[in-house]
Design a protein that fits this description.
There is one protein chain. The protein is an alpha/beta fold. Helices cover 38% and strands 14% of the residues. The mean pLDDT is 96. β4, α3 and β5 form a beta-alpha-beta unit. The chain binds NADP nicotinamide-adenine-dinucleotide phosphate (NAP). NADP nicotinamide-adenine-dinucleotide phosphate binds next to β5. This is NAD-dependent dehydratase. InterPro entries: NAD(P)-bd_dom_sf (IPR036291), PRISE-like_Rossmann-fold (IPR055222).
Length: 367
């Protein structure tokens, strides 16, 4: 262990956060929260940018040399790891995403690290996308102490790299298992809020039905979601409160809902006339198929409304919304463990969506 001895940083101003994947849906919420709380914030991604109170660090997590060079003079006390890259198979996901955690922490062996927080997700319980919901499923609501699923999973590889580095480098760790994230990002891999907003825009502009794409189970059953803000709040809590050290936590908003209740409400927030709103009828109708013939209309819609992103592929992640809403199993998440440990963050899911749509509208990503 070659950690440099420094006094315990106890106030935000003494703490330096390195947010890894800082431009993503989770990372950007963390950057905002840490900056607003007075931390020194380093924001790492390939296309890094600096802003008031935030210093961008451009590095490629798949290039250990680039990481070593970029981080040689940095001395973060806390790391928030939120980066990932989607690969064609889970075998490749494991190699790439496990490797990124390993190489990032190795490049920080000189830093006075106190805590490293890693965000993963409910695929910890459900299995990877290519074997989603297959095999033995834990009973709902999902609890943190469930044994790992038998299917190989990149989250397990990331956890194992985290645990090994914590042992070697002498920091505490936390893992944050999120459900589908409601948050702000453009050009990222999985963004249900913006995907639904783009679907609604196409429906309004082209006079199409606004069709729920998912399964009967999701339409009728109880479920939950995770606002990026509450996820960031839990990660910062775990990174700074002894009760959060060396533990894995689920993180969802704290309310439950049924999509048959939520879908017409989201339509109303997005200005879709009620007569165009269509629920589950007989079978899932995935957005990838529903939207394929309408995507070409987006550049014209963007021009008509003065929108800033004419490339619909940077806004809508149809595949991911289809996968999450198409699940034929109940997905509900227990929040008791972190509540008992002292984390009390809470969001109302409908309000999280509504506020997100206002933000996307204000930034001219949707009309
Ligand atoms: N989004 C969801 O709904 C959701 C739900 C549950 C769990 N999760 C999990 O949460 C974790 C974080 O996902 P997310 O959705 O927040 O990610 P995201 O929005 O796709 O953001 C990924 C971030 O990682 C950076 N990045 C990717 N490859 C990189 C590389 N080679 N070098 C440096 N930076 C790189 C990206 O920036 P650049 O492209 O600029 O490098 C971006 O800042 C993942 O494990 C995911 O499975 C997500």
């Amino acid at each position: 262990m070659d950690t440099i001895e420094t006094p315990e940083p106890t106030t935000p101003a003494q703490r330096t956060a390195l947010v890894v994947g800082a431009s993503g849906i989770t990372g950007s919420a963390l950057v905002d929260r840490l900056r607003d709380a007075g931390w020194e914030v380093l924001a790492l991604s390939r296309r890094a940018s600096s802003s008031a109170g935030v210093r961008g660090i451009a590095a490629d997590l798949r290039d250990p040399e680039s990481l070593r060079t970029a981080l040689a003079d940095e001395r973060p006390t806390h790391v928030f790891f939120t980066a990932w890259q989607r690969m064609p198979t889970e075998v490749e996901n494991i190699a790439v995403n496990g490797g990124m955690v390993c190489d990032l922490l190795a490049a920080l062996s000189h830093a006075p690290l106190r805590h490293v927080a890693l965000v993963t997700g409910l695929k910890h319980y459900l299995g990877p996308f290519e074997a989603y919901g297959e095999g033995r499923m834990p009973d709902t609501p999902f609890h943190e102490e469930e044994p790992r699923h038998e299917t190989p999973n990149f989250y397990y590889a990331q956890e194992d790299e985290l645990f090994a580095a914590a042992e070697r480098q002498g920091f505490t760790w936390s893992v944050h298992r999120s459900h589908t994230v409601i948050g702000y990002a453009v050009g990222n891999a999985m963004n249900m809020g913006l995907t639904i907003a783009v679907q609604a825009t196409l429906a309004k502009e082209l006079g199409l039905p606004f069709v729920f794409p998912g399964s009967a189970t999701q339409w009728n059953g109880l479920t939950d979601m995770t606002d990026a803000g509450v996820l960031a709040e839990q990660m910062v809590w775990a990174a700074t409160d002894p009760a959060g050290a060396d533990e894995a936590f689920n993180i969802v908003n704290g309310d439950v809902f049924r999509w048959r209740w939520m879908w017409p409400r989201l339509a109303a927030h997005l200005g879709v006339p009620p007569e165009q709103v269509v629920g589950f009828e007989g079978a899932p109708r995935p957005l990838e198929q529903q939207m394929a013939e309408h995507e070409a209309a987006w550049p014209g819609i963007a021009q008509k409304h003065g929108l800033v992103e004419p490339d619909i592929s940077r806004l809508a992640s149809w595949w991911h919304t289809d996968a999450d809403l198409g699940r034929d199993i109940e997905v509900v998440t227990d929040m008791g463990k972190s509540r008992a440990a002292g984390f009390t963050g809470y969001r109302r899911t409908e309000q999280a969506f509504a506020e997100l749509f206002v933000r996307y509208r204000a930034d001219r990503l949707i009309p």
